[in-house]
Write a structure and sequence with these properties.
The chain is mainly β. 0% of the residues lie in helices and 43% in strands. 33% of the residues are buried.
Length: 126
Amino acid sequence: QVQLVESGGGLVQPGGSLRLSCAAPGFTLNYAVSWFRQAPGKEREGVACISSSDGSTYYTDSVKGRFTISRDNTKNTVALRMNSLKPEDTAVYHCATVGRGRTDCGSSWDGNFYNWGQGTQVTVSS
């Protein structure tokens, strides 16, 4: 099956920044893409989504104003820029396409997501 590839994670101090990238080797990422995260002992949490139909973006409340999701069609990637990082942002971050080739993000994080990547670790600690 087609699988996305995440990169860009690492160790950063509180207040720092990281840029994650979601790449789609072998196919054109002309679909809505969501970022999720999962920390030890916690449920998977939807973080951000970007549509491919009109470029609309959506964020969970805890990251609004700090994270920015964007798309680079020339590189066939979706990025997640994370600023003002907090220890509670520590998690494995995954990206996935929305539905079966949907171009819109939908209305919730509880729908079907596909082409999950292996994830990239983000650790925020002093």
